[in-house]
Amino acid sequence: MIRRAVLVLLGLVWLGPTYLLVVNAARPAADYDPARAWAPSGEFALFRNFARALEGARLADSLASTALYGVVSPLLAVVIGALAGYAIVVLRLRHGFRWFLLIFGGTVVPSQMLLVPLFVGYSDAGLYDSRFGMVLVYTGISVPLAAFVLRNFYTGVAFSIFEAARMDGASTFRIFWRIYLPLSLSALAAVFILEFTFVWNDLIFGLALTRTETVRPVMTALAGLMTDVYAGTPVPVGLAAGLVVSLPTVVLFLATQRLFARGLSLGSV
Amino acid sequence: MSAVLSDRSDRAAGRRAGSARRPLLGRFAHGYVAPAALLVAGLLYAPFLWTAYLSLTRYDGLESPEWVGLRNFARLLGDPALLTSVRNTLIWVAGTMLLPVGVGLLVAVLSYDIRGGAWFRLPFMLPYALSGAGLAVVWSPILSHDGIANRLLGVDTAFLQVAPHNTLAMLLVWTWQQVGVNTLLFVVGLQSIPKEPVEAARIDGASGWRLFRHVIWPLMAPLTAVVVGLALVASLKTFDIVWVMTQGGPGRNSETLAVTMYRDTFVASEYGYGSAVAVLLTVVTGLASYLYLRRQVR
């Protein structure tokens, strides 16, 4: 009983800011008053507020670009990572373990060590402030984790599957594409969810490598909107923008908590 | 760690199939690792090495880098902004162990084996899906000077202006967000510990705190190591929340190492000096991970 009471009490404290977010994001922009922020306004202006944010900060373009980065980069990364895992474990690549360490070692590199060369290199190569450049960098960062998880997954798959398919005359790529890739769907999904969330929530690469609203990822754009909150964007408009752009990850996370946790503890080893 | 990273299974698979076919497959196999290896080499390792080189130069991004040896690092030692930044980063690390990890453990232990536990945990899970920018959007109106907290409580507190209060305030915001994921990891761990030792201890009369301290806690040690390790590395690299809430200010007094690196590089356009901060951050993170892992393995 005491356990439940403590949980409910703590839970209420935690719900406070969430409540403030929802209530004030739905409040008509002109009615906002910090002293009465607890009281619901009785009106529902969430979509009007969000529309205003879309217009003011050109968030629609940012959202479209971020959706592109969030889907394409993790998809590419899981397939590329799976290919590497397949080569190392199933095709028994010569010095496979060293290749694995080379690829997995990429997770150790902090993003701060990448920013200057990427910024300068991208500027020279014409990739600065381009969608292709962003897809490329997000893919590169996502590959090591994908390779790690998929290599471990394929280690647990019976080698006789490969031998049988070989006997039937299938090529190594066909075996990968038709047997091993579908077999590892759950692992691929776990990595995809984790990496989608990482890309969707990224701030720093957006800050360093983009400038225009059309290329800028949505969290970087939202951060820009925040400095405008002081400069006159009404609080409800900022909150509505924050709420709506967070929905994809909130829904995804709540729907796949367990998968998410497994991916997280896998990636940390 | 050693079990997961061992190449024993690869070798075993190789032996089983005989080495006669290895050359044929091995040759083709390079094409399959090439995309991953090229991406990692080009986008992670090459920039890493380049930054390490740049930390030994003076560089503004326009003229070619000019070699200055260790002068950037000597300058770091006497930079008051760096001292503040190191202090704040340490507050972040210590605070993260205490609050997000500690409260996460508490919520997990209280809720993992009661009926409807997932519903009790839901309030903690919602904030985790917010990004650093989303977090700042929610909390800036609460903590700003004429914000909700001050007006509701009828006080006049400078939550985000005075150091080190601003770092502590952001730490509380961080706690609000991070408890969820730590709870989730701890719950998964608690639910997967073997039932028999716990039952045996119950039969022997252990319960409550004693049961937790002497039976459950040792059983969940491997998972605790993972959660603490994740939190350690993440807190050393704290950037998003600080950048969006205070931009490291006012007057650089809430900067962390990662924020200092960004400001020196992209605001002050001192690419060489910023790279030196990045190298310092990398060394500190690497050292902390190494010492931590060594303690865990032993």
UniProtKB/TrEMBL annotation, chain A:
The chain crosses the membrane at residues 67-87, 99-120, 132-154, 175-200, 235-255. PROSITE patterns: ABC_TM1 (PS50928). Belongs to the binding-protein-dependent transport system permease family. It is found in: Cell membrane. This is Carbohydrate ABC transporter membrane protein 2, CUT1 family (TC 3.A.1.1.-). CDD domains: TM_PBP2. It comes from the Bacteria. It comes from Nonomuraea pusilla. GO terms for biological process: transmembrane transport. It is a multi-pass membrane protein. GO terms for cellular component: plasma membrane. Residues 63-256 form the ABC transmembrane type-1 domain. InterPro entries: MetI-like, MetI-like_sf. Keywords: Cell membrane, Membrane, Transmembrane, Transmembrane helix, Transport.
UniProtKB/TrEMBL annotation, chain B:
The keyword Transmembrane applies. GO terms for cellular component: plasma membrane. CDD domains: TM_PBP2. SUPFAM superfamilies: MetI-like (SSF161098). The chain crosses the membrane at residues 31-53, 90-112, 124-142, 168-190, 211-236, 271-293. Keywords: Cell membrane, Membrane, Sugar transport, Transmembrane, Transmembrane helix, Transport. It is a multi-pass membrane protein. Residues 86-292 form the ABC transmembrane type-1 domain. It is found in: Cell membrane. One of its GO terms (biological process) is transmembrane transport. Pfam families: BPD_transp_1. It comes from the Bacteria. PANTHER family: ABC TRANSPORTER PERMEASE PROTEIN (PTHR30193), INNER MEMBRANE ABC TRANSPORTER PERMEASE PROTEIN YCJO (PTHR30193:SF37). Belongs to the binding-protein-dependent transport system permease family. This is Multiple sugar transport system permease protein.
